[in-house]
Amino acid sequence: MAESKPMRQQMEAYIRYLQDQIVTSLEQLDPNGPSFKRDSWIRPEGGAGQSCVFAAPVVEGDEARQQDTVLEKAGVNISIVHGTLPPPAVKQMRGDHNSMPLPENPTGGLPFFAAGLSLVIHPRNPHAPTAHANYRYFEVTEAAAEGKKDGEDRKIIAWWFGGGADLTPSYLYDEDAIHFHNTHKTACEKAGSPELFAALKKWCDEYFYIPHREETRGVGGIFFDDLNSGKHSRLPDARANTQEEIFELIQSLGNSFVPSYVPIVAKRANTPSTPYQRRWQLIRRGRYVEFNLVYDRGTKFGLMTPGARIESILMSLPEVARWEYMSEMGEDENSDEGKLVQVLRNPRDWV
After folding, report:
1. 79-123 pLDDT, tens digit each
2. Which terminus of the chain has a smaller tally of CB atoms within 10 A, N or C?
3. pLDDT tens figures, 285-336
4. Which Pfam families does this chain map to (predicted)?
């Protein structure tokens, strides 16, 4: 049997494939709209990537406004990078990944490799939900011996997969939430882990939580981190999964994103909406920004990494958001806005 390629190569090939699939599907939502801007870049410290970003063109006139498109802001980015993590980033990682066998005080930092896909989609219509997903592989290697170049022949001292997908609507449609969750549940089952979905859904609700608002960011989905060949305290499966088995799960979940989300946007993109509903959408986007900038581990880690590409890291932020002082919107439990807030304060199991 032929020897399999190193996981870093397998993951790179997969995220390049997945990016193309997702971007193509999103462009087909709006055939008359502009294509995603494909921006390939090189990281001077080591590695490269491609950002595929959609931003509706601005129409100039008496008052500048965006062209009417299905999507308002979206990005599907991949990065394949390597280099050395400085001590502050290692410290952050030790806190976030306390099950990893990382040195306490690495002299000069730790060599690393990371490959991942990250996306955020903000549709224009208030009835079409925002979505986020990311899938990543990370490994930390021993320091290179003197005279030895940076490469794949170093001993790997830690590796893991992480990621997930979640849905953030402004208006609650039960059937949309059920479809999104059920599609990811089926993906877990296809990967041979039928009991896994419930644990990943609970993990998602706990991670995407805004403490100062006492509400979740959205209606949930799946989230996981630190998946490696050891047992994980948060997961029900007691067996030790191999790297290839976890990679199969990653592919099953990644391949489920388009069927879980794109049909929802296609269904809601032309729903009639009012200025009042647009105002609520922008307030909800403000909460999205609050989570990403204050609590999201990936954003904080990215900003600590040398050579961080700020445009890619902050791609997740919407084009437009709103913060109102002491807003009354959503306080009436019987209103459409209030029905969403009740779910955000009391997460629901959708499947």
Report:
1. 999 988 777 666 666 555 555 556 555 566 788 899 999 999 999
2. N
3. 999 999 999 999 878 777 776 667 788 888 889 999 999 999 999 999 999 9
4. Coprogen_oxidas
Q: What angle do CA 119, 123, 128 make, to 5 degrees?
A: 110
Set 132, 181, 184, 232: catalytic member: 132
SS3 67: coil
CA distance 46 to 152: 13
| Structure-block tokens of residue 300 | 């904080």
> Distance between CA 173 and CA 31 in Å, rounded?
26
Q: Quick one: CA dihedral 273, 277, 278, 284, positive or negative?
A: negative
Q: End-to-end CA distance of the chain, in Å? A: 41
With a pLDDT cut of 90, the percent of the chain lying above it is 67
Three-state SS at 351: coil
Which has the closest alpha carbon to 285: 49, 122, 97, 173? 122
pLDDT at 344 over 80: yes
Which residues face 164 on adjacent strands?
134, 223
pLDDT digits (tens, 9 = 90+) for 201-247: 999 999 999 999 999 999 999 999 989 887 777 777 655 578 999 99
Quick one: average pLDDT of 251-269? Answer: 98
Look up 132 and say whether it is catalytic. yes
> Do 77 and 40 meet the contact criterion of CB atoms below 8 Å apart?
no
Tokens for 78? 């991949």
Confidence of residue 3 (pLDDT cuts 50, 70, 90): low
Integer Cα distance of 50 and 315 in angstroms: 13
Residue 53 is encoded by which pair of tokens? 């970003």
Q: How many CB atoms lie within 10 A of CB 45?
A: 13
Minimal CA–CA distance to 295: which of 210, 221, 205? 210
